[in-house]
Amino acid sequence: MKTLTVTEAARNFSRVLDEVENEQEEIVLVRNHRQIVRLVPEPPTQTALEVFGDLYRTLDDETADALIEGVRKARKTGQATLASLKNPWAS
């Protein structure tokens, strides 16, 4: 994490943004010796398939199988519900 004064950031704003974007560097801006803002790079974009894959890996086998079956039904009929799925994060 890098710290810059607001004045430094204003004078070199394009360079600061390049560091955040290209180097994935988090930058904190300081004014009057107080931290006032944090510039944080956006996470990389993911396709729906990547997000779905991440979700799938968090499910137990029974829930994952129900999800796969629900997707198959949706593809065949154009509409399906996933009512048989339970919320894996619920208590």
If you had to describe this structure to a student in words, what would you say it looks like?
- This protein is an alpha+beta fold and 91 residues long.
- It has 2 domains: 2-39, YefM-like fold; 48-77, no CATH class.
- The chain has helices at residues 6-11, 13-22, 48-56, 61-77, and strands at 2-5, 27-31, 34-39.
- It has a 3-stranded mixed β-sheet with strand order 1-2-3.
- A hairpin with a 2-residue loop joins strand 2 (27-31) and strand 3 (34-39).
- The protein starts with a strand and ends in a 14-residue tail after the last helix.
- The model has no long low-confidence stretch (mean pLDDT 84).
CATH fold title of the largest domain? YefM-like fold
Q: What is the C-level CATH assignment of the largest domain?
A: Alpha Beta
Measured distance between first and last alpha carbons? 37 Å
- What do the pLDDT scores average to? 84
Tally of domains:
2
- Please provide the count of β strands: 3
Q: Percent of residues in beta strands?
A: 15-25%
Please tell me the CATH architecture of the largest domain by its name: 3-Layer(aba) Sandwich
Q: Which range best describes the helical content: under 10%, 10-25%, 25-40%, 40-55%, 55-70% or over 70%?
A: 40-55%
Low-confidence stretches: none
Q: Which structural class fits the helix and strand makeup?
A: alpha+beta
Shape: elongated
Query: Which series of helices and strands comes N to C?
Result: EHHEEHH
Strand order in the sheet with the most strands: 1-2-3
- What is the count of DSSP helices, taking H or I runs of 4+ residues? 4
Largest sheet geometry:
3 strands, mixed
**What is the C-alpha radius of gyration, as a whole number of Å?**
22 Å
